[in-house]
Design brief:
Elements (H helix, E strand, L loop, with lengths): L5 E5 L8 E5 L12 E3 L6 H13 L6 H13 L6 E3 L4 E3 L12 E2 L4 H5 L1 H4 L6 H4 L6 H13 L4 E5 L2 H13 L6 E6 L13 E5 L4 E2 L2 H13 L6 E5 L7 H16 L13 E6 L3 H7 L4 E2 L13 E2 L5 E2 L2 E5 L14 E4 L4 E4 L4 E2 L4 E2 L8 E3 L4 E3 L3 E4 L4 E4 L31
Parallel strand pairs: 7-8, 7-11, 8-9, 11-12
Antiparallel strand pairs: 1-2, 2-3, 4-5, 4-6, 9-10, 12-16, 13-16, 14-15, 17-18, 19-20, 21-22, 23-24
This protein binds S-adenosyl-L-homocysteine and zinc ion (4 copies).
The site of one zinc ion (ZN) has 6 residues, from strand 24.
Length: 424
């Protein structure tokens, strides 16, 4: 149901070669999708037929096209007849009230509510991969202002429904607002609020357009319009997602933009904001060496990862990774960011420039300290451990340093993050 599966590898202790299998790209919890198939497995006709039947029965009850028609009817209704079923997460037409009579519903759905579907729909909480964390208004506005200041006029919103809706909402209300957005998201509920030119049902773990060739073409057109100029992609994937799978899809979207023909802008890359926690920095840079991580802390309305910092302001671990020149990304001084003239980028106020590293080294906004033995800056809570020959928390248990990666044998990572493998 989520489109093509991904190929994973299962490693068992003591074996050199892992066994490869296909599993759902979007659902990492087997409870949500139990698709499983060994790479070398023969699948019988009956099983294939059963699968197809299963996929058919797991289609949404209305197509995107039908939802667009329903929306047109819905907005013609007087306020008193505009209902939204909370159980089915669906706009209801009067003829359907009966069927939902024992469901909870909201009435008097206003135009303003229709313009902010992310407020109307409940955030999906589907554990790791499908959890929806919505931008706090402050962060969403910061992103949009930044996009405008940088001169972009089209935003490919990949898994950023709230940014999309802020853009759409302004576009429908302010005459001189010129920015447009196309939302790509796996959450099909949004098809009730947007036309096929505004929303594509999309899986960012396998670059699958559920709407087929037509939807792919919509996306291609959006990217390549005006010779691909002034377009930026903004994405905020679920943090449990595989970086490798995401990177592969984003490269395909970038390639779509690159194909826009005409003049030679060969080495250019489509501008991107990839919003993700700072501890994924090395993973992201592995796939996108041209990216750098900004210090800006992206805030959410409903995020469990929040800690409250000294200042009472929330400390969020979520950052913006971008291939735009860092000095152009102006961070708000009133929120404590300052410009480091040596690094040529805005940094957190607590992020001190280290003379030895010649860089503002803090990743989490706190002031880090330089360790001469490690030859790098480390978290303020860490101390150099002579046993481990590296810095760590005082309370850590010393590990053998010669224990390399179980898969490739190299030191510095565990098998779960071995770059030579897809992770299971
Ligand atoms: N901060 C963003 C929301 C990020 S939550 C905002 O406020 O706009 C992650 C988003 O990615 C959700 O909208 C979710 O529906 C979407 N998503 C989750 N898995 C996806 C997948 N496999 N493909 C595409 N979108 C996905
Ligand atoms: Zn699935
Ligand atoms: Zn600096
Ligand atoms: Zn240093
Ligand atoms: Zn050290």
């Amino acid at each position: 149901p989520s489109g093509p599966a991904l190929l994973f590898v299962k490693i068992s202790q003591g074996k050199e070669v892992g066994r490869r299998f296909y599993a759902c790209s979007a659902c990492r919890d087997r409870k949500d999708c139990n698709f499983f198939q060994w790479e070398d497995e023969k699948v019988s006709e009956t099983r294939l037929a059963a699968r197809e039947e299963y996929n058919r029965s797991h289609q949404p009850s209305f197509t995107h096209g039908q939802n667009v028609e329903r929306y047109k009817d819905f907005v013609l209704l007087p306020l008193s007849k505009r209902r939204f079923c909370q159980e089915c997460q669906q706009l209801l037409l009067p003829a359907e009230w009966e069927k939902h009579s024992n469901h909870e519903f909201l009435c008097d759905i206003s135009t303003a509510q229709l313009r902010s579907p992310s407020q109307l729909l409940y955030p999906l909480e589907n554990k790791k991969t499908n959890a929806q964390y919505l931008f706090a208004d402050r962060s969403c506005r910061f992103l949009l202002d930044l996009i405008i200041d940088l001169g972009f006029s089209r935003v490919l919103s990949v898994g950023t429904p709230r940014l999309h809706e802020m853009i759409q909402s302004k576009a429908s209300q302010e005459e001189d607002f010129r920015v447009r957005s196309l939302l790509l998201d796996i959450d099909f509920r949004y098809s009730q609020f947007y036309t096929e030119d505004e929303f594509c049902h999309y899986n960012m773990f396998n670059h699958h357009f559920f709407g087929g060739e037509g939807a792919l073409e919509t996306c291609r057109k959006f990217l390549c319009q005006d010779n691909g100029e002034r377009v930026i992609m903004v994405t905020d994937p679920p943090f449990g997602g595989l970086v490798e799978a995401l990177a592969s899809s984003f490269k395909k979207l970038m390639a779509m933009w690159k194909e826009r023909g005409k003049e030679g802008h060969n080495n250019q890359e489509m501008p991107i904001f990839w919003i993700f926690p700072y501890f994924f920095e090395s993973r992201i840079l592995e796939f996108f060496p041209s990216f750098s991580m900004m210090d800006y802390q992206v805030d959410y309305d409903n995020h469990a990862l929040y800690k409250h910092g000294k200042t009472g302001r929330r400390q969020s671990p979520v950052r913006i990774f971008t291939n735009i020149t860092p000095s152009l990304i102006v961070l708000p001084v009133e929120e404590g960011y300052r410009f480091c003239t040596i690094c040529q980028r805005y940094v957190s106020s607590g992020n001190q420039h280290c003379e030895i590293c010649n860089s503002c080294t803090s990743k989490d906004g706190r002031r880090w300290k330089h360790c001469v033995l490690c030859k790098k800056c480390v978290k303020p809570s860490w101390f150099h451990c002579d046993n481990c020959n590296c810095c760590a928390l005082q309370s850590h248990t010393c590990e053998k340093t010669d224990a390399g990666c179980f898969v490739c044998g190299k030191a510095g990572h565990k098998r779960s993050t071995c770059p030579s493998l897809s992770r299971t």
